[in-house]
Amino acid sequence: MKKFYIIAGVILLVVLAGVIVLKQVDKNYGVIWSSPRVSHEKLATNNTSFRFVIKPQLAKEHFVKLLGEDSSVPAWSFGMVLPYETAMLAGSDADRNVADVMFFCNDKRLGPKIVEALNNGNAVSGIRGLDFSKDGFVIPERGVITLEGSAPLDSTTMNRAWDHWGYASRVSPLQIEGEHFAELVIDNRRGDAYVLLGSLAKVFLDPREFALVEPALKGMIGIAILRGHADFVGDDLIQIKFGVRCVTDSKEMSPQLLKLVVDAGTSKLATNLSENYRIVLNGSTRIDGDVLYGDYKLSKVSSYMASRLLKFM
Length: 313
Known about the structure:
Radius of gyration: 24 Å
Number of domains: 2
Helix content: 25-40%
Oligomer: single chain
Number of strands: 11
């Protein structure tokens, strides 16, 4: 009986030692257990007027097919390591006179190694104008990777917003609709997105570049909400849909004018994609009341996307 307890004790010690080792490995590399799902909304605030969200797990089967059977990356690994969600959140805070920008990732595994690679590779070194946190990318909790940045609000843009919107009462922030591979929401009902994008354009662009985009920024005064999403609808086909709600009777923008601008822009974009990347863009826009809707499809995208994916492998 004594021998049994000794053996049981040894086994228990071995198991405990194994658990401790596994927990330490997981702490250092985040590879043993999967992280909990955490939404970007946990970090959004009432000032957040810009949300761009990507959910890589929704396209893992397409990524496997894009890389092909000869890829050195095993197919099963995509489901194991692709993040649940990545996002860029931004908003303007008039009380602090800053534009806040946050990059967010809800990793499934390998969080510590992702942070190490991003910080060692100076992932945001090419983004000018933003003052990033000195700690760079950090892990405030398991499964959450963040990078915070800020820029001063532009006084001219602020004054224009005040002249147009005045002291607009607060509204509930708009959120993404849900299960799309990529989704964009821009909320300009109170002029927040106008102030945000105008201020960021001032710090990102040189004066000549800013002069080129300034008419488009002024047109934003007539836009209340922009929603768009993109999804894989085939191995070589991506569907893009959007809706832009204009302000009723706005002098700066109307659905009819916006349609002319979007149609001309997508026509030029289609030519560029075809000539330089052999990607085909087809689609159209339609007007329904104050809203301009767009429905487009990108085809023959597999070769280009595969080449871009391989650069990250």
